[in-house]
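Sample entry (437 residues):
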Amino acid sequence: MVRRDDRLSTPEREPSATERHAVRVLEGQARGWRLTRALPFLGPAFVASVAYIDPGNFATNIQGGAQFGYMLLWVVLASNLTAMLVQSLSAKLGIATGRNLAELCRDEYPRWVAWSMWVVSELIAVATDLAEFLGAALGFYLLFHVPLLLAAILTGIVTLVILALEKRGFRPIEAVITSLVGVIAGAYLLETFLDRPDWAQVASGTLIPRFAGTQSVLLATGILGATVMPHVVFLHSALTQRRIVPRNDEQARRLFRFEVLDVALAMGLAGLVNMAMLIMAASTFHAHGMTGVGTIEEAHRTLAPLLGPLSSAAFAISLLASGLSSSTVGTMAGQIMMQGFIHRQIPIWVRRTLTMAPALAVIAMGLDPTRTLVLSQVVLSFGLPFALVPLAHFTARHEIMGVLVNRRVTTAAIRFVVAAIITLNLFLLYQIFTGKA
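Predicted structure, serialized as tokens:
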């Protein structure tokens, strides 16, 4: 079933009107408002941003808000700023090299390193799909009251339908994913309006870093793993590598500036949605002494008596949109990583089936979906260095990046991020193995 992928370039096709307009903008021929000129370049970051508001975020943010109130909002903010830095570097890598991060790892590192990284990336893909499938299945279950196992199968079918849009070019699938992101954002705008948070405590939780015991560190690590997702670090570089190809250094710089705008808009929206999730849990559950509300099903069931039936419906709709969109993006990332690391691919339906198997097993065994979601996000946090270390390494090398090589301050920032994540993970491992977690 696995086949060698000897043709890594995309098939030749007639450029779309959007692509032709993008070329005119890069060449300085297009006129009009800056935002209008930027429109052809927007999209890749919105696809990547789906991974930052996936069902794993629902689980960690609900638990964090219910148990600790507004205290961990600073973790959400820090994670989102980290995501902006990471995704801008990933986008820049694809623009500068015409290769994605996985391909560069294969080309620059020894064969055994590339294959080892591929194995880790597949484990990351499984942990990612576990969260996304469970989330979408819960969304179907809460909205339509279908059995959870059937809901998971429906998720697999719908994501395959969305993935089929790739054959029509990058714009259709970007439009679908962006629309689903809009649904999630709209639902949480409504939730924030209904739950009337304490804005003074929101400001305090956002600006003052603090923890309250090991459990808060575990949840902070889960929030980090749910927010800075390793698979989209690989994916974003692939989304920009051949989407719009600059013809010279000046066009490359101009293209990257548009991609930074794309990242700022998409990740900024994702960050606000993440903060709204935690604020909803803090102002609705923690404020009413319901710190034991730690599952998505409990959150949905409890919202209606506290805020009205509209709130629980909005919650379920946003969860379903999140699960479907992030599951689609996760499958795309899995294909990119396999193709890049080991120069092979498998049919998309085979990958979809294999990666959804653990989620089906969790449902069949009757395990707690929310607890499983949180633990899967911790696993993802441990996978982050395998994406961030090579990203920091490659983007700091002039012979690879050319005019888009990192500035010293950027290199220092990404190295600090990598060191902080590794330190946090080592601390968590210590806590677990000493029985303190």
